[in-house]
Input
Amino acid sequence: MTHVIKTKDLKAAGVPGYVIDLKCRPGGPWQRLLPGVLLLGSAPPTRAERLRAAVAYAGPEAVVTGVDALHAHGLRDLPPPPRIHLLQPSTTRRSCTDHVLLERTTRPPQVVSRHGLPLAEPARATLDAARQEQDPLRQHHLLATAIRSGLCTVPALAAELDAGSQRGTATPRRALSLLTALLH
Output
């Protein structure tokens, strides 16, 4: 079994920095997933380990959103995106890495805890994923899938759209409008 852990936690437990560096060398038993975050194992990290590493990197107020949050809520019909999408408070200045998209927000989502991860509630996660999707057809599919699965309702998505930032919402609004017309 492998573990994701912060470097500072290992040092606090008495593991010297030089030992951490030695074990994280190429071919070593550990690997650095993100700055200050290690995987205590040499196998390629799973998506779940990458999620845990991203949350550890971003800090205790970070929340998983987008497709990864939807997967944790039980919606498995969507392919995982290249980057893990996290929300963080607007006062946080942690920067993004290649594998993590950190989005600052003045309107933190309602948090649901599943599998030890802080997740955005489904309507927020769905719209955060839709705002990141550039292809209108895939965006429409994402919204329709979340609605059909019973994870979200059209009114809940519309309310979330109205309450949040207007940035990147034109296409999801059109898709939601089409879905509303189809459902009535």
